Backbone:
């Protein structure tokens, strides 16, 4: 059971509001979370009002192996809570040009 900490949108149309949730990685964006860990309201004016988190529960889930998404890591840093960096995405391999493409350029 691979857990991630990510944002789940619950706001109305043109009124964004997000929950910070611990959820299984295989569940979709609308899946049932294991636990709600906080909220993020980007419409608030003061930065301290935008983010509300339960620090004890976030520390617990991170200690259990949950990996925060890039966005959640950024928000946690803004809230003054240090979280482990998200898993690095593998770089795509660069393909060498095809041999027949090189022959076509010569002609």
Residues:
């Amino acid at each position: 059971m691979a857990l991630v900490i990510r944002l789940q949108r619950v706001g109305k149309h043109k009124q964004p509001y997000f929950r910070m949730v611990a959820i299984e990685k295989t569940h979709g964006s609308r899946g049932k979370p294991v636990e709600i860990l906080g909220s993020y309201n980007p419409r608030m004016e003061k930065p301290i009002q935008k983010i509300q988190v339960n620090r004890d529960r976030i520390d617990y889930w991170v200690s259990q192996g949950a990996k925060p998404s890039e966005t959640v890591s950024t928000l946690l840093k803004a809230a003054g809570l240090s979280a482990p960096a998200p898993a690095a995405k593998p770089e795509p391999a660069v393909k060498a040009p095809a041999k027949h493409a090189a022959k076509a350029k010569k002609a």
